Amino acid sequence: MGNNENRSDEIEIDLWELTKALLKKWWLILLAGITCAALAFGYTLLMITPLYQSSALLYVNNSDISVGSTSFSISSSDLSAAQKLVDTYVVILKSRTSLNEVIREAELDYTYEELREKISAAAVNSTEVFEITVTDKDPELAEKIANTIARILPDKIADIVVGSDVRIVDYAVVPSHRFSPSYTKNTAIGAILGIVLSGAVIIGVYLLDENIRSEEYLTQTYPDIPLLAVIPDMSVKSQRAGYYGYQAPSTAKKKSRGNRNGK
Fold first, then answer.
1. Which of 9, 40, 41, 194 is the right S-S partner for 32, CB 3.0 to 4.6 Å?
2. Is the separation of the CB atoms in 205 and 98 below 8 Å?
3. Quick check: is 108 in a domain?
């Protein structure tokens, strides 16, 4: 009794049967993947606003500079110091005074906080060149903001950092392609989610199904209990059905013809 109770508490998962259950519903998994991919594509196309990025490049001169009462010098080989100098310029760029001047110069409807969220700046490969990137739903406006910053920032930095020299390497241009969203990426994610979710549902239904569908399940799960009888599937018409009182129509016709010939 103790062994049987332990067996009943254990849940054995047949990976081959589980695989067959998934293969049996392959059409449902495929349909779920296509449906979710279409929904993801439609949502991306209709609900997500495309964003565009425009960038300008500026060069930080490696000369002796001073910030307040602190002075230091950098050389072309001292990239870590150049990186610190770029970080200083980025802080100046995102200051309220600088961005408010950009808003006035470009005649923008954005507040300081809104414009700050649209701007990012960082050194290019840890060099003395840093890139200013503006992200906006309007590609022409993104280019306008980036170039306005490129024109204003050198003078703004010169007023704060004594001895600084910032020069424009490359002006921003109107982007021809959107930066986000990616229709291909979102559609692929939707398809994968549909396949995974449908597969999980099929597996869950299979694991929760307590119906006994084969003799092998009983003999393998309960080897100590003898199998006394098996109820046949009466929905399947076969020759064995005659044993339970069923007579095939063809046999009945043959007998009736025999009686007629015997008259």
1. 194
2. no
3. yes
